[in-house]
Design goal:
- The structure holds 2 protein chains of 2 kinds.
- Chain A is mostly helical.
- Chain A is about 70% helix and about 0% strand.
- Chain A has 10 helices and 1 strand; from the N terminus they run H-H-H-H-H-H-H-E-H-H-H.
- The longest helix of chain A is centred in the middle third of the chain and has 28 residues.
- Chain B has 6 helices and 11 strands.
- In chain B, strand 8 and strand 9 form a beta hairpin.
- The chains are: A mainly alpha, B alpha+beta.
- At the A-B interface, helix 3, helix 7, strand 1 and helix 8 of A face strand 3, strand 4, strand 5, helix 2 and strand 8 of B.
- Strand 1 of chain A pairs antiparallel with strand 4 of chain B, so a sheet runs across the interface.
Chain lengths: ~300, ~220
């Protein structure tokens, strides 16, 4: 598939906000671990801003953004429609939590609702891709696991950065402990990514020219796709990059999204500094942009079988 | 199988000569009909690009000297279980109950392209200029027309085909020409592995079997 930058920015920005909100809700659901000023002045506004940026990015994906409201209509059948409802829901719950926290304390049910809404949004986003059964790279539960894990890693790193920025000694969280937790999440995410790449490599396409055309005989090949110019079909479903570029982007993903931040976190476990975490967060986010790009690029669409030869 | 009507095309690969008359007549009718315009960008430039509902592709099979060239018209298959319809977030994509035609409501389409991702056949094209999803309508504005003569109430591609390679009819009616062709000549569906149950079917070439039989005869 052709990587769509609107969706790359939307899923990574919203994912980071979801991860942040998930951890904050988890920490505060039993008793208020994080202080109200930290939440109302930093965490919740930052989350809301990231979600808003994601929402704006998603509009760039549409040919008719002025009709976007219509996309909430078919929630009974369409995961995209469900996502269109879930994103404003997370934003609404973030705003409600903000008003509760700003005027005192947010009740446990609100934190629970916020926690669940972040999970719901991850499920909706991942299912958009996972439910397309003939894109075999996507049609697997690892798509959802990957979206959730990378949301948690970026959100966890952002939380660590914000905690250090706030620098409040009353927060009962050791920075070494937070670094350790983020390191473990990144380690899990890295292993999942490597597993997904191995799975993709071993996939056997279920469609081929014999099933696509039904022509009897061996050695079927296309001699003409039927036109010499471009079309939607020749643009939308392929990344148009060489194998070398793809290989290099894979290396960038491993280094930027996973290994680099893990090294920085390992250092910060013993001697923690805010610049270290800031660099780790920035690296991880850039790496995640590349990872999301690759998520599209490595998805093989069977329609490409029909568009192989110009003559 | 439901008892409702399901209009469809049956493509006879025995007689398609790859002349592209169906492609041009489809474009001509639909660019000026209710589905249009099907815009062409940079039409006279170095890299033209345009929206088409129908293409004729060419394939080869076998090894020399036993090769065959197959011209292969390709358009929306109007699946009985169309994967493109349930994914549409706005309801712009729908399958008509009365005749099984899969259509797009251009006034509701937001141009998100999700339906095109959900079609394994690549039957949908986003019109670059109008930014809405377009696809074969089975010439819904021809076949029910009250102003056209009765004999012309067929899809433009069917009327244009010089070798009658395109048979139009109700594949749920066992008495229709389309159903009979499928039944008698081994009509098959494309990519059956995804269980989309395409309404359009293809008639396999029998020439290779005839040649094979003649060889074995002597």
């Amino acid at each position: 598939m052709r990587p769509q930058f609107s969706i790359i920015f939307f899923t990574t920005l919203a994912g980071m906000a979801q991860g942040l909100l998930f951890f904050v809700a988890l920490l505060n659901i039993e008793e208020p671990v994080l202080s109200a000023p930290f939440l109302s002045m930093l965490v919740l506004p930052v989350s809301f801003m990231l979600l808003s940026l994601g929402l704006v990015a998603s509009f760039f994906h549409l040919g008719h953004p002025e009709r976007a409201w219509r996309a909430a209509m078919m929630w009974r059948t369409s995961w995209l429609s469900r996502e269109v409802i879930a994103l404003p829901l997370v934003m609404l719950l973030t705003a409600i939590t903000f008003f509760f926290v700003a005027s005192g304390i947010a009740p446990a049910w609100l934190w629970a609702a916020l926690l669940i809404s972040t999970l719901v949004l991850w499920i909706c986003t991942a299912k958009i891709y996972q439910c397309i059964r003939f894109i075999q790279e996507w049609s697997h539960p690892s798509t959802l696991s990957n979206f959730i894990l990378l949301g948690l890693t970026s959100g966890g790193l952002l939380l660590e950065f914000l905690l250090m920025l706030w620098n409040d000694p009353s927060v009962p969280l050791g920075m070494g402990l937070v670094s350790g937790a983020n390191f473990i999440l990144l380690f899990l995410a890295l292993n999942l990514k490597l597993w997904i790449w191995r799975r993709n490599q071993k996939l056997k396409p279920q469609s081929n020219l014999a099933t696509a055309t039904g022509i009897k005989g061996d050695n079927i090949r296309q001699t003409s796709m039927g036109f010499m110019g471009g079309s939607f079909n020749t643009r939308e479903f392929f990344h148009h990059q060489t194998d070398r570029v793809i290989g290099n982007i894979r290396k960038i993903i491993l280094l930027m999204a996973y290994i680099g931040p893990m090294i920085l976190l390992a250092i910060s476990m013993s001697s923690s500094s805010i610049s270290l975490i800031a660099i780790a967060l920035l690296m991880h986010y850039i790496g995640q942009l590349a990872e999301r790009w690759m998520f599209f690029a490595e998805a093989n669409h069977p329609q490409n079988l029909y568009y192989q030869r110009v003559s | 199988m439901s008892t409702n009507k399901q209009l469809a095309l049956v493509i006879d690969l025995n007689v398609c000569v790859g002349c592209h008359a169906c492609v041009t007549s489809c474009k001509e009718w639909n660019t000026s009909g209710s589905a249009g315009p099907l815009t062409d960008l940079n039409a006279y430039g170095a890299s033209p690009s345009g929206t088409f509902f129908n293409r004729v592709q060419t394939y080869e099979a076998g090894s020399f000297p036993n090769t065959q060239t197959v011209h292969f018209p390709k358009s929306c298959l109007h699946c009985e279980d169309p994967p493109c319809v349930p994914v549409c977030p706005t309801g712009a994509s729908y399958k008509r109950k009365e005749d099984g035609i899969v259509l797009v409501d251009y006034d509701k389409c937001i141009g998100c392209s999700y339906c095109s991702w959900a079609c394994p056949y690549g039957a949908r094209e986003l019109d670059e200029e109008r930014q809405v999803m377009t696809k074969c309508t089975l010439c819904v504005d021809r076949i029910y027309s009250e102003t056209l003569p009765e004999s012309e109430r067929k899809p433009a591609c069917v009327l244009a085909c010089p070798t009658s390679a395109r048979i139009f009819g109700d594949v749920h009616d066992p008495e229709s020409d389309a159903s009979k062709a499928i039944e008698e000549r081994g009509g098959y569906a494309l990519m059956p592995e995804w269980e989309t149950q395409p309404a359009n079917q293809y008639l396999p070439r029998s020439i290779m079997e005839t040649i094979e039989a003649a060889r074995n005869d002597k």
